[in-house]
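Recap for those who missed Tuesday's class. We walked through two folding examples back to back. For each one, the amino acid string is listed first and its predicted structure tokens come directly after. Nothing is annotated here on purpose, so try labeling regions yourself before you check the end of the notes.
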Amino acid sequence: MADAADEARGQSRVAASADVDPRATVGPGTRIWHLAQVREDAVVGSDCTIGRGAYVGPGVRLGDNVKLQNYALIYEPARLGDGAFVGPAAVLTNDEYPRAVTPEGRLKGGDDWTAVGVQVGEGAAIGARAVCVAPVRVGRWALVAAGAVVTRDVPDFALVVGVPARRVGWVGRAGEPLTAKGEGVFVCPRTGVEYLETDSLLSER
């Protein structure tokens, strides 16, 4: 494990009990905690946090400042943008038609199925124990509530809840629900930043 001096110099810090494949790439300042696994050809950006028991599959791409909480499972070929957050025990799947065996009863191998990935946009957050069923895209700065099951794409800044997940409002970059001002304008109660809804999509003004 890197010591405090290494961390101060921006080097990554990997717990002794973590399993990081030598073919993975880990950016400076990233912390990988106990029992986490980062598989071959995964790319983890700088200043990320990979929590205890989290899993990052082969070839997964994480941007900078990504946070995976304890036991989050990120299956290949997922792509997470800068600043994305995945809560405890959340799952990003990769198999549209899961089966352990072929129709003939033979145990499936890597050539018997095609992995499909979940995409998570910049700044988006996936709540604890939520499941994103591939292939879906969670838009920039969106918020998926704890326990939700995402089966279709989530727009930028959307707040989605439930099983299956449905949009119930909008959130800003601060993560708090936005307040309607009228005429399609919404405002963040924390920052005062305004957003505009057009054709069921939200953008910053």
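Example two. Treat it independently of the first, because the proteins are unrelated.
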Amino acid sequence: MLLHTIVPEPDGTVGVTMPISIEFSDPVATPARAAIERHLKVTTSTPVTRAWHWFSSRRGDFRPKTFWPSGTR
């Protein structure tokens, strides 16, 4: 299984509601998703309470509980 796409691209400018969206080349079985989440590392300039949400077997979104603080990198 490979990462197919990651959005937004590095150094992109987006709005405060934009998730980090990861699409995989192959479907991810529901029992495997938690292990994948633990292996992916997202570092932010401003600490936020955050979570993953899976929209399909190939796409997971990472976003803060409410909004990204303005200026977060």
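Answers for example two:
Residues 17 and 67 are 5 Å apart (CA to CA).
The two ends are 28 Å apart (CA to CA).
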